[in-house]
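cron nightly-structures :: item 1 of 1
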Amino acid sequence: MTIPSITCAYKAAVTPLGYKTNLGVVLLRTDETLEHDLRRSLPLEGVALYATRIAVAPEITVDSCAAMEADLTASAKLLPPNLDYAAVVYACTSASSVIGHARVAERIKAGCKTQDVITPLSALIDACHAKGIKRLALVTPYEPAVNKGLRTAIEAAGISLSAEACFYESEDAKVAQLAPEVVASAARQVAQLAPCEAIFISCTNVRTLDIIPALESELGLPVLSSN
């Protein structure tokens, strides 16, 4: 059966979606939180956000973090290739400390055109330096062995750690379901263990955006998170 058809004239959109800037993010396949948080936090007008995913084992360990290095370039290549990005985020705090920020940046820039690469670790260090924070308390979903690289990188940047609270949860899907109120409780408790100038809640899969304002007001301290 033949149906009527017409040939349409192509015309490009006058204004691109990212007429102010294009941003990319490489998300873990298990991350249920950060993409939502970014879209809540970023301005909608003129700022285009493009996401891709990277494979990771269900459990977050030092080895599973290190294994992602091999797939970073391939994942970055899945971002829209015709765009220039102001920044691309690799959204894993623990893996960025295991692989190293410089290597993460190298692997991502091999896969897409971006001026800058950001990791939660590099963003944390920049935030601490900007705010003059030199002593952090840490809240993390993982066991201390997974956090070793994170602690080392933070201390290498001239920031000391006063205390640590861990949930000992290695399965990232369960991390995404951590109740915000228990995360807030951990932040309160770790702040009482030893003097600190700020609290850092690690992991992009932890829901933090809605608890930070009340925690900062209650504790009188900056509360930073991966997201």
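cron nightly-structures :: done
The first strand starts at residue 21 and ends at 28.
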